[in-house]
Amino acid sequence: MPDRQPLVAIITGLPLEYEAVRSLLTGLGDRRTSTVSGGAELGELPDSAWQVALADVSSSHTPAAIVVKNLVQRFQPRALLFVGIAGGLKNTVEVGDVVIGTRIYAFQGGTETPEGFYARPQSWHSSHRLEQIARSALIGEPGVHFGVVAAGEIVLNDEHTSLLAQLKRSYNDALAVEMEGAGVAHAAHLTGRVETLTVRGISDVADTAKGPGDPRRAQSLAAARAARVAAAVIRELPTAPQRPTNIVVQGEVNSVVHGGHIDIRGNTFFGATPGKIGVESPPEDN
Question: Which are the contacts of 97, defined by CB distance < 8 A and separation ≥ 6?
Fold first, then answer.
């Protein structure tokens, strides 16, 4: 494949989240609704070499899994970020803070019995590489937390105090709760082709005494903060893709190194390796 401008995909779950990210991009192109279900816009992130494919799962009735699958197939992004707002679950998380998801819980999994609800959690880890890049990019950034995010298709409000109790009982390491993250994480996992990271701005908290005076304004500010943090992470991403290195033993390719990992294929070596060992990189793309 010929070299092209490196691209990262961003998915949002609400129009205000979409607009918060969109406001940071330049050179926006037409929506590609014929290729990506729900549509996607292409733009560039200033002060970086990155192009961004931006899609919003709320813009159509298409499931997040289909949007992710089509984005990955069409654009082959180097990374996928899920950016938006969430509710805070811990006293250490304030309105206006940002949570970088190190793991995503699907908190609705479980079984109801006469003795009560028994959680059967499913979870997905964010990309370790993207997490480390985020930690480096956000050193000194106030109000940024790295931790677990719980996700489910229920809006947590005063009518769901039992749900809050369930979250605190069964998922008590979660820092934040939102709605679409589990679907996005699962879809990205199924593609097996893209690293993912969740970035959530905190728009409200479980402690009502610490809630925002103007919820709509708090949501807009949280979405804007999440978008800026995501942009800072993208700017830190290395633009050169990781390329495999072949280890050649006696003229045959016996193993491939991917980022320091050696996978020996069909050979067992005892003691010194016989023959001459050379390291060769794959040919450059034309």
Answer: 88, 143, 144, 145, 201, 202
Q: What is the pTM of this model?
A: 0.77
- Quickly list H helices, the chain: 15-22, 64-75, 128-137, 161-170, 181-191, 215-236
Look up residue 79 and give its amino acid: A
130/110 Cα distance (integer angstroms) = 30
pLDDT digits (tens, 9 = 90+) for 161-218: 666 777 777 778 899 998 887 778 878 888 877 999 999 999 998 766 566 678 899 9
Closest by CA to 199, choosing from 157, 240, 122, 138, is 138
| CB-based contact 189:72 (threshold 8 Å) | no
Instruction: Check: CB of residue 94 under 8 Å from CB of residue 176.
Output: no
Cα separation, 146 vs 93, in Å, equals: 11
The tokens describing 92, both together, are 């250490």
CA atoms of 72 and 68, how far apart (whole Å): 6
Task: Tell me how far CA of residue 280 lies from CA of 246, 250, 257, in angstroms.
Answer: 5, 13, 10
Reading the block at residue 286, the tokens are 């034309």
Closest CA to 222 of 208, 202, 198: 202
Residues in CB range of 279: below 8 A, 6 or more apart: 245, 246, 247, 248
On the 0-12 / 13-18 / 19+ scale of CB atoms within 10 A, 19 is: middle
Contact 98, 32 (CB under 8 A): no
